[in-house]
Amino acid sequence: MDQALRPLLSKCLANGWRVVIRGREAAEIQQLDDDLWQGPAEEFLPHGLAGAAQEADQPVLLALEGHEAPHDCLMCIGGSAVTADEVLSSKRVCILFQDDNGQHMQNARAQWKSLTEAGIAAKYWSQAQGNWALQAEKEASNA
């Protein structure tokens, strides 16, 4: 996950976007926080945990489901949910999952179905071969 997340976060920050990374489990959020702190110094990504001091100043905020925070980009990990309204109010939404985790894949498929049935445009990108490749795309519709 970290290998996919770092380049995506770097691109968001280069655009001047505020990012919220949403997870379902505190342990997963804490592990991500640790991973981001322990990365190479030249790839450091400024971030913080929801509920901590200066939360509003963090360009990347790690939060659990249910914690609302202003953002330009919402990244959902670990099967965390996203609604059509959240997609419409964001510049970008990414649903990140590991393809070797069956439950997370099922959640991602269910989210794809729910969002596209609500008329939301969606793209499925995979990094299975090492480089990002577009696997599927659905245009927005008037649902």
Automatic annotation (TrEMBL):
InterPro entries: DNA_pol3_chi (IPR007459), PolIII_chi_sf (IPR036768)
Signal sequence segment: none
GO BP terms, alphabetized: DNA replication; positive regulation of DNA-templated DNA replication initiation
One Pfam family in the UniProt entry: DNA_pol3_chi
GO molecular function, one term: DNA binding
Protein name, entry field: DNA polymerase III chi subunit, HolC
Organism: Planktomarina temperata RCA23
